[in-house]
């Protein structure tokens, strides 16, 4: 699957499993919701204290397996170096992320994440 196809697939399917590297070199796997921002970057929201955050601060490599709601069927694998963006700089990108994941509320406010 080409990169453009994988991004299009991810836009339609936000469920994924994120793999990061633990200190001992073994993978840390986490179910996540993933969005694609206006610059075609993959975006995941998580806590500063989550293991996946600590892992990528130490080793920026990460991989995603993006799945459909059916689980079996089409899927996409993406990988590369990641960047952690923290508050307050991440506030506007988070609004875009939650709009993508949850949709725009009729009043213009974003809805709560699923």
In short:
This protein is α+β, with helices and mostly antiparallel strands and 114 residues long.
Structural features:
single chain; 114 residues; alpha+beta; four-stranded antiparallel sheet; two-stranded antiparallel ribbon; 6 strands; globular; disordered C terminus
Please, could you describe this protein's structure?
The protein contains three helices and six strands; from the N terminus they run αββββαββα. It has helices at about 5-10, 50-60, 90-100; strands at about 15-20, 25-35, 35, 40-45, 60-65, 75-80. It is globular. It starts with a helix and ends in a 12-residue tail after the last helix. The model is unreliable at about 110-114 (pLDDT under 50).
Indicate the structural class.
alpha+beta
The total of beta strands comes to: 6
Residues in helix, %: 25-40%
Oligomer: single chain
Order of helices and strands: HEEEEHEEH
Gap between N and C termini, in Å?
28 Å
**What is the overall shape?**
globular
What share of the residues does DSSP label as strand, in percent? 25-35%
The overall pLDDT average reads 88
For the largest beta sheet, what order do the strands appear in spatially? 2-1-5-6
Largest sheet: 4 strands, antiparallel
SSE topology:
Elements: H1 3-12, E1 15-21, E2 27-33, E3 35-36, E4 42-43, H2 51-58, E5 61-67, E6 75-81, H3 91-102
């Amino acid at each position: 699957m080409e990169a453009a196809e994988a991004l299009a697939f991810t836009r339609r399917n936000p469920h994924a499993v994120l793999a990061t590297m633990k200190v001992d070199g073994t993978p840390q796997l986490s179910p996540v919701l993933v969005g694609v921002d206006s610059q075609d970057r993959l975006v995941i929201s998580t806590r500063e204290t989550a293991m996946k955050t600590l892992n990528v601060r130490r080793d920026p490599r990460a991989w995603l397996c993006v799945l459909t709601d059916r689980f079996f069927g089409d899927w996409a694998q993406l990988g590369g170096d990641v960047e952690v963006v923290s508050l307050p700089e991440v506030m506007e990108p988070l609004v875009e992320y939650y709009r993508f994941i949850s949709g725009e509320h009729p009043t213009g406010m974003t809805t709560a994440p699923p």
